[in-house]
Structure formats: structure tokens, C-alpha cells
């Protein structure tokens, strides 16, 4: 049974998995763009790595032989032929500029397990007599509901605190 996340737009009827896929890719691009800037700015040269391995402390030697340093050094060395930053510039990739947002009517959860868990009522795992109480708790949406309620309560408290800075407590009803 298909569920549709988008209504009243040209994409109605499309599989919502495409939307989830898009946001996974978009989020990965955002992270890649930030990461490549760090790599281009901070990656050591091969000479620096060799010096760490040959002349450094044990910590520096461990850092020098780590795959992360080798990958970062390679990417920096190949920046001219494989300039990932320029790809983002070429396609005018901006994190906040998403034309897709005009069609989305609810937050998109990119983790399918979390999205499914959000709709599992506590009665569903309770039907399985072979589960422990801890397993039943983890398999229902109650923890997510508690987290959401707590976050919402904190947000409302913050808004009220900012809106009424001189109040020391809530006014009495009546």
C-alpha cells in the first residue's frame, strides 16, 4: 500500500521514497561540502605525514598512518583535477535554497526505521508475548512521543520566557 506525502501539487502520486532519497542525498551533499572545505584547508601534505610517522611521538605516528590522513592528503593533492568545491559552485548548490520545499507538507524523516517507529502504537509490540518489557518499550513510539513532548515543552517555555521577561511565575487564572 503506497502512502503519499505530497498532495495538491504536480508530484502527487509519486513514491514518497523518492522524497526520502532526495533528502538523504541533499543532506550528504551539505556534509560533503562542509567536509571538503575542512580537508582542503587542513589536510597535511605527504611530506608532513611522512615526518609524523618517522619523527613524531606515538600519537603523531598513529595519526600519520591513519586512513583519514591518507585520504585527506590525497584529496588535497588532487584538488586541481578533482575540485569538489568547484562542483558545488558550478551547480549553484546552496543548502537553504530548495525548490522542493514548496511541495513538502510535513517534515521528511530520512531514517526509515525512525519513521516506521513513529507510527507503532504500544499495543502492537504488547501483542507479542515473547518480548521483554524493555523490547516492547523500544519497539513502540512512546519514547519518541516523550521526546517530542519534552522538546515542545522546552520550546514553549523558551518562547514564554523571552516574551515575558519580567514575570517570575505564571499569572493566576481568573
Automatic annotation (TrEMBL):
<dbReference type="InterPro" id="IPR000999">
    <property type="entry name" value="RNase_III_dom"/>
</dbReference>
<dbReference type="InterPro" id="IPR048505">
    <property type="entry name" value="Dicers-like_N_sf"/>
</dbReference>
<dbReference type="Pfam" id="PF20860">
    <property type="entry name" value="Dicers_N"/>
</dbReference>
<feature type="domain" description="RNase III">
    <location>
        <begin position="84"/>
        <end position="168"/>
    </location>
</feature>
<dbReference type="InterPro" id="IPR048504">
    <property type="entry name" value="Dicers-like_N"/>
</dbReference>
<protein>
    <recommendedName>
        <fullName>RNase III domain-containing protein</fullName>
    </recommendedName>
</protein>
<dbReference type="InterPro" id="IPR036389">
    <property type="entry name" value="RNase_III_sf"/>
</dbReference>
